[in-house]
Specification:
255 residues, elongated, 76% helix, single chain, 0% strand, mainly alpha
Length: 255
């Protein structure tokens, strides 16, 4: 009985000490966060709490305009443009524009592709605005309409705007759902568009499915993209399999 009592007291003591240490760590974390927030304020770094994000603004405007979400987005677009006109420094204005248009794009992807396109086509976006918009689409985190977006980018945008957005979109889509992306790729006709999308897909999946990446690479014409995918697989080859690595290098002419 005494031993049981002593053991219980010991356990209580241990938990008390651990609890006090955890409390101390929590208080230290709070102090550190407080210092970082204060430092950010001193450096004039705006936090997201200081202004409504685009998604929230669109929702608020949608309420005030009834159910016309297109009109709400158009009003938010005007607000973004007006606010940029008051920024004197061009470089700062470009950074703000990229951020705000990418937020607007991310929000727009949840409308569904057809609804989003209806709004985009009525908005008369400038080339810079369109570039920032499609970059936001590519990094939206919402890839249910990825195939429609990349096909539209390829058909409707200048190559210098379309290609980086397509590469990013396919890469992110592949990371999110490589099976769906691969199934779509398998149905594409031969040509530059297929090569661009396959290259982006294979580079992404080479990180976790090297055999599949190599098979896709072999469907590409000889050139830098194909070579890069093969090299990615080679440099990631398991160290515990030197013979396999050497055979792979020999097969693909790597020295």
């Amino acid at each position: 009985m005494k031993m049981s009592l002593m053991f219980s007291i010991l356990l209580i003591g241990i938990f008390a000490v651990l609890g006090w240490k955890n409390h101390g760590r929590l208080e230290e974390a709070k102090r550190t966060r407080s210092q970082l927030v204060k430092k950010a304020a001193e450096l004039s770094i705006p936090s997201y709490g200081e202004r409504p994000r685009v998604t929230k603004r669109v929702r608020e405007e949608s309420v005030s305009f009834g159910v016309n979400a297109d009109e709400a987005r158009t009003k938010v677009l005007k607000e973004i443009r007006d606010s940029l006109n008051s920024v004197g420094d061009r470089e700062t204005a470009r950074k703000i524009q990229k951020e705000r248009f990418r937020e607007l794009a991310r929000e727009s992807t949840y409308m569904g592709f057809n609804a989003a396109m209806r709004w985009v086509e009525s908005s008369s976006l400038s080339p810079d605005e369109m570039g920032d918009f499609v970059a936001g689409v590519a990094h939206s985190g919402n890839y249910k309409d990825a195939a429609e977006w990349v096909q539209w980018m390829n058909a409707s945008l200048p190559a210098d705007v379309a290609k980086p957005a397509i590469r990013d979109m396919v890469s992110n889509w592949s990371r999110n759902d490589y099976r769906a992306a691969g199934k779509w790729l398998a149905g594409l006709a031969e040509g530059d568009f297929r090569n661009l999308t396959v290259s982006a897909f294979a580079k992404e999946v080479s990180n976790y499915a090297p055999d599949a990446a190599v098979q896709w690479a072999k469907t590409l014409p000889p050139g830098p993209d194909r070579d890069e995918i093969i090299h990615r697989v080679y440099i990631r080859w398991p160290e515990e399999d030197p013979k396999g690595r050497a055979a792979f290098a020999q097969e693909h002419g790597i020295r």
